Amino acid sequence: MRDAFTSQQPADGEAPPSILLAGAAAGPEPADEPSWWQREHAEPGFLVAYLSMEFGLHESLPLYAGGLGILAGDHLKAAADLGVPVVGVGLFYRHGYFRQVIDAAGRQIETYPPNDPARLSLTAQLASGGEPLLVEVEMGGEVVRARIWKLAVGRVPLYLLDSEVDGNSPAAREITDRLYGGDSEHRLRQELLLGVGGARALTALGLVPTVVHINEGHAAFASLERARRLVESTGLGFTAALERVRASTVFTTHTPVPAGNERFALPLARSYLDDLARRGGSSFEEIARLASGPGEEGLGMTQLALRTAGHANAVSELHGQVARRMWAGLWPGLAAERAPIGHVTNGVHAPSWVSAGLAELLEGVGVELAGAPGEQGWERAGRLQDDRLWAVHRAGKAELLEPLGLDPLRLTIGFARRFTTYKRAGLLFSDAERLLRLVADEQRPLQIVLAGKAHPRDEEGKAVLASIAAFARDPRFAGRVVLLENYDIGLARRLVQGVDVWLNTPRRLQEASGTSGMKAGMNGVLNLSVRDGWWAEAFAPQAGWAIGDEVSARGDEAEAQELFRLLEQSVLPAYYELDSAGLPARWLGMMKASIALVGERFSAGRMVAEYAERYYLPAHRDAMRLAT
Ligand SMILES: *Cc1c(COP(=O)(O)O)cnc(C)c1O
Q1: Of 396, 452, 393, which Cα lies nearest the Cα of 425?
Q2: For residue 491, which atom of ligand 1 is closest to its CA?
Q3: Cα 555 to Cα 16: distance, rounded to the nearest angstrom
């Protein structure tokens, strides 16, 4: 496909590649090549606005912290591939998310290099007189202005609001300084700019979305703004206006972890929302009731989003069950399992994550990475030739491992994710003696490459990072355990293309989906993971290994023992077993099964097609019905 993204991306720190922006010049879909959307749906007037606090498109554009943002980026890329009419709306952070350095004591040092719009090929959106197009949002007695930048993601535009505008007060300018920096009030101001400002920006740009997709609770204020506008422009009452907003709103919840479900103190929230609520024919008390469950304190953004979105989903089958139980209190009349939250399992954008070498081999056997969902032919990965697949895999390992002084022949485990307690990075290190025996084995050695950031305010996460750093510095593990700094999209790409096994050890039911394992699995890197999130539905013994069973979490100790048992009895023997041609035939068979299974079921194309058919189109039709 002409607009597809490729994994040939530039080195760290360079401007986004022109291919990222190719759609800007390409314009509408070429007539000779109708998109999936045009062939299957093409509903007139249909337009989705996708609102997200973060977007991860490329390492040179640090407007993301981790999984949530990269998912949003992959969503836009896949929507572009499929031709689904979507526009993204987010914030342009002048200092983005931090770069990580780890000092000799294992402490994380955070720096915030500036983002320069000119170097990042963003286009300023202008008003008719040629001056910057501005949106205004009232915040605590002050009018905050924001300008709008556009970034073309293939044919999908992403609009980014930026409060660094002449005439704004210093405090107003700071709103878009950093992603997830600052205190609760700062975050509230950012979320008002995203939700209220985002909805106003669409209007200022002349766009009329029929569906608004709220990616995580951060953007939920968009619903209040849309209700206010209906009340002021049509004379509807708040309840009727909110019904219309609900009909056309899709909300995705991304985590069961309490810290990921924001809450604002009521006095703070009142000082910012009182006026908006009244102009919308409602009151702050009514909004606060919408934004809380029985007996809860504060204004909860997930609750607000669930109550103002008529269509809601979790991000894996298992997370759907967890989310329905977790939020059941919002629907006291329903049994918990009938709470109206479905699921669309996350996916990753294959052309962005599969190595160039493997992509070429796959194309050679007839797999179309950016093809229409269900028509990509991933099962043909079974036809890959052992020697060629192994050569490509070895090349990916050499590229990652040789600069680190590690031997690419050894079985290499990758572990990279945010350092936070529930992800249990320490599980593998919980029995240091047993691990030492594995890494020091002369015949069948094991080595481990790790990376990850801790949230700037997560002291426990930083302690986990420091303990891993101590293992990496321990002379007994020298040359066998390596911790890399600054986990970002570029490093993630190298890791998921350059190790043999992708390890994930979350505490069960806390990992909503996880996507790094999908990136790895598509590259033939075998998952060894707790049955949580996406792996609970993906696990198949021919394509990887599962720690634990499907029903319970058995505690750190028991799960660590099982992890070691799997490594010793299954993973290491399979990797080091060579056939007469000197190839690990059994391992290669598992790699092919992994590529086929993960590619088929966990691509972002499949995900976006599911959103389109099961959420966007019904929301669009509901909205049309109510509007007439
Ligand atoms: C994919 C990705 C993530 C999310 O992966 P999880 O499996 O959800 O931890 C986080 N950070 C980066 C840089 C990624 O590429």
Answers
A1: 452
A2: 13
A3: 44
CA 360, 366, 371, 377: dihedral to nearest 10 degrees? -120
Checking phi first, is residue 188 left (phi over 0); if not, alpha (psi -120 to 50) or beta?
Answer: alpha
Instruction: Enter the tokens of residue 432.
Output: 């240091």
Residue 60 structure tokens: 């040179």
User: Greatest CA separation found in the chain?
Assistant: 79
Cβ(180)–Cβ(456) under 8 Å? yes
Q: What is the pLDDT of residues 153-183, one digit of tens each?
A: 999 999 999 999 999 999 999 999 999 989 9
| DSSP notation for 573-594 | HHHH---TTSS-HHHHHHHHHH
The total number of residues written for the chain in this structure: 628
User: Contact, 556 vs 529, CB < 8 A?
Assistant: no
CA of 453 to the centre of ligand 1 (A): 11
pLDDT of residue 548: 85
Q: What is the C-alpha to C-alpha distance for residues 213 and 87, in angstroms, rounded to an integer?
A: 10
Q: Is the CB of 516 under 6 A from ligand 1?
A: yes
Q: What stretch of H or E contains 252?
A: strand 249-252
Interval between CA 452 and ligand 1 midpoint (Å): 9
> Could you tell me if the CB of 451 is within 6 A of ligand 1?
no
How far apart are alpha carbons 427 and 556 in whole angstroms? 7
Pocket test for ligand 1, best of 54, 68, 70 (most atoms within 8 A of CB): 70
Amino acid at 378: W
Q: How many other C-beta atoms can be found within 10 angstroms of the C-beta atom of residue 625?
A: 9
Per-residue pLDDT at 566 = 98
Identify which of 415, 484, 516, 603 to mutate to test ligand 1's pocket (most ligand atoms within 8 A of the CB).
Answer: 516
In whole numbers, what is the pLDDT of the chain averaged over residues? 93
Nearest protein CA to atom 4 of ligand 1, as residue: 67
Structure tokens at 348: 């990753």
Range with lowest mean pLDDT among 416-425, 560-569, 595-604:
416-425
What's the pLDDT tens digit per position in 466-477? 999 999 999 999
CB of 66 within 6 A of ligand 1: the answer is: yes
List of E strands, 194-316: 211-215, 249-252, 263-264, 299-300, 311-314
Is residue 434 pLDDT above 80, yes or no? yes
Q: What separation in Å is there between the alpha carbon of 535 and the centre of ligand 1?
A: 15
Q: Is pTM beyond 0.90 here?
A: yes
Number of neighbouring beta carbons within 10 Å of residue 22: 18
Strand pairing category for 123-124 and 142-153: antiparallel
- Give the rounded distance of the alpha carbon of 232 from its chain centre: 36
